[in-house]
Specification:
254 residues, mainly alpha, 0% strand, binds zinc ion
Length: 254
């Protein structure tokens, strides 16, 4: 397989033998993006233009806050607010309340629903769905998926490492299957799916067992028994379902 700039990160991620190699890649890209924009980049006009346009999601705003560059964060927020308030004014000015009929009042209001129907609800939702850091990952992710499957079908050593590894979290496994269904040939699917499915089941069961032993350890009769692999079963158990690293220390500037 032709080496690309994505080959080394994907190979590194497999070698890391993490609970999920895509969680591993995602964390790396996330931290890369945060250090980049909170480094000297926030002073560059073209970067600020992008962060003013895209903003950040709740999760990445928290990461930016934790990173600890207070002046950088304030400067970025300042120009972002300037644009946001102009947009807000336009939205409020052009808003026309919907006529509320008897029937629509009876219909259950779906305030927590995922699909917003009012122009203002939609405007806020679009703002929340837009994030500079998420975009950075979304842009790279398909390339990593490409590289992963290319290596899997062409590189025997890579295949064996994946096969002997810990599999994927459920979140990224869903993405893998979406990708594989669209891009792999029937023959490749026959070769790869049994391995992926076995990896998922074996490793999800492993987590179930680790968590089970964690619970059993609280029984006084097991007080002196060995922890086996269960000491960090909670954080790995959460990662395996939703992705991410609940036990990671806060990512801060060095
Ligand atoms: Zn994952
Ligand atoms: Zn984000």
């Amino acid at each position: 397989m032709k080496e690309t700039i994505y080959t080394i990160p994907v190979t590194d991620a497999v070698n890391a033998n993490d609970e999920c190699l895509f969680c591993y890649l995602e964390r790396k890209l996330e931290q890369e993006a945060i250090s980049f924009i909170m480094g000297p980049a926030y002073m560059e006009d073209d970067i600020r233009e992008q962060t003013d346009k895209l903003g950040f999601c709740r999760h990445h705003h928290k990461m930016i806050y934790d990173y600890g560059n207070k002046l950088g964060t304030a400067l970025m927020l300042h120009t972002y607010y300037q644009k946001l308030n102009v947009d807000l004014h336009k939205q409020l000015e052009s808003f026309t309340p919907k006529k509320t009929g008897a029937f629509s009042r009876i219909k259950k209001a779906d305030a927590a629903g995922t699909k917003k129907e009012s122009p203002l609800g939609q405007w806020v939702q679009a703002r929340e769905d837009s994030c500079y850091v998420c975009d950075h990952f979304k842009e790279k992710y398909p390339r990593y998926l490409d590289t992963f499957f290319n290596l899997l079908v062409s590189d025997r050593e890579f295949f064996q490492k994946v096969e002997a590894g810990k599999g994927f979290c459920l979140h990224h496994f869903g993405d893998l299957m979406e990708y594989a269904e669209k891009k792999l040939s029937t023959k490749e699917k026959e070769q790869i799916y049994p391995v992926l499915f076995n990896l998922m089941e074996t490793n999800m069961k492993r987590l179930e067992d680790d968590i089970s032993w964690f619970v059993d350890k609280y029984d006084y009769r097991n007080h002196d028994a060995d922890w086996k692999n269960s000491k960090d079963a909670i954080q790995r158990g959460i990662q395996k379902i939703t992705g991410g690293y609940p036990d990671d220390p806060v990512f801060t500037q060095k």
